[in-house]
Write a structure and sequence with these properties.
By secondary structure, this protein is α+β, with helices and mostly antiparallel strands. The protein contains 4 helices and 7 strands. α3 links the parallel β4 and β5.
Length: 161
């Protein structure tokens, strides 16, 4: 059954709280996507250990959770990586199986990019599994271009903001 496109006025990102954590943990991608994106629980564990670098948010349509997004912000120079430029971007994006195709992913990526700009960034980075079943086309439509790098076996792409 096709998903009714979201109305931008009804969309928001919410901080995870005790009141919405169970709804966030219940979000699931389609079975054929399970190898492409980690579950919310894994993302929250990563956010916990990475502290202020991670920015996890629940994607809401009205008061209904429809997805999860996590950004990362790395604005500091790393002396151990002098040739590496600071990066910020999309760390994780998960839209619930029954809600895909409604504009929620686009909204979440746009919100992450807006937050990067708000923090002084000029580009956004994303990594994804390459291949015909991966999200390369989705990110390309949003302005992300492959850099030619791989990170943990995933394609790296960037968008100028």
């Amino acid at each position: 059954m096709p998903v009714t496109p979201a109305t931008p006025a009804t969309l928001s990102l919410a901080v995870l709280t005790p009141a919405n954590i169970d709804a966030a943990l219940a979000l699931r991608v389609r079975p054929d996507q399970e190898g492409l994106v980690a579950p919310v629980a894994t993302s929250l564990a990563e956010a916990y250990v990475h502290g202020e670098t991670a920015w996890p948010r629940l994607i809401l349509d009205g008061d209904r959770p429809v997805g999860f997004v996590m950004a990362f912000f790395d604005v500091a120079f790393h002396p151990d990586r002098p040739d590496d430029r600071p990066r910020s971007g999309l760390w994780r994006l998960l839209i619930d199986a029954g809600r895909q195709g409604g504009g929620y992913g686009r909204f979440a990526v746009e919100q992450v990019c807006a937050e990067i700009r708000r923090r002084g960034g000029a580009r956004a980075t994303v990594t994804y599994h390459p291949g015909p079943d991966g999200p390369a086309g989705f990110y390309a439509r949003l302005g992300f271009r492959p850099t030619g790098e791989l990170s943990g076996g995933q394609e790296v792409a960037e968008a100028e903001l």
